[in-house]
Amino acid sequence: MMSADNRAMWERPGINMRRHDALMGALPAIYEQVHLGQKGRPQQRFFCDFVVSEIHGLRVKELVDHKDKGGKVFGTFCVYVPEEIIVAAGGIAVGLCGGADFSVPTGEQILPRNLCALIKSAVGFKVGNICPYFQVADLIPWRDDV
């Protein structure tokens, strides 16, 4: 269940709460199916389970607090931007995910249907105001030379 504190925090950067609620409603079942249901899964993975349970909570709060103090947040994909450069600039790097089909239809509203699904998903998360990490990021360096 989402706390009222998180909802207020998510609303600040303009999150579309209806769409975010739909995403958050789907994530627990997906996580349970993909991770918790694995045969022989080590019990020591509880820390990972905690991190996932707070995926749009504690980390987003850390980023929002950093921005409130005048810091910048850089959204990155994979290893395209060396984190050391971001830290040296007084920023925080946050990994972004575009690997969910959930936001592809939103991305397809402005991108060609035959474009890579990862790109359409990432753009959909940003323009659909769905994911707090995309909304909190001050800069998302896109690579168009890959």
Q: What's the topology here?
A:
Layout: H1 4-11, H2 17-36, H3 46-53, H4 58-68, E1 72-76, H5 83-88, E2 91-95, H6 104-108, H7 117-127, H8 132-136
Parallel strand pairs: 1-2
How is this structure best described in words?
The chain is mostly helical. The chain has a domain at 4-96 and 131-136. It is built from eight helices and two strands. A two-stranded parallel ribbon has the order 1-2. The longest helix is centred in the N-terminal third of the chain and has 20 residues, at 17-36. The mean pLDDT is 84.
What general form does the structure show?
Answer: globular
Work out the number of β strands: 2
Low-confidence stretches: none
| Biggest beta-sheet profile | 2 strands, parallel
What is the rounded Rg? 16 Å
Provide the structure class: mainly alpha
Q: What is the H/E order?
A: HHHHEHEHHH
Roughly what fraction of the amino acids lie in strands? 5-15%
Strand sequence of the main sheet, in spatial order? 1-2
Mean residue pLDDT:
84
What percent of residues adopt helix (DSSP H or I)? 40-55%
Query: Count the helices. How many?
Result: 8
Cα-to-Cα separation, first versus last residue: 40 Å
Which terms summarize this structure?
146 residues, mainly alpha, two-stranded parallel sheet, 8 helices, 2 strands, 51% helix
Quick overview of this protein structure:
This protein has a domain at 4-96 and 131-136. It has helices at 4-11, 17-36, 46-53, 58-68, 83-88, 104-108, 117-127, 132-136, and strands spanning 72-76, 91-95.
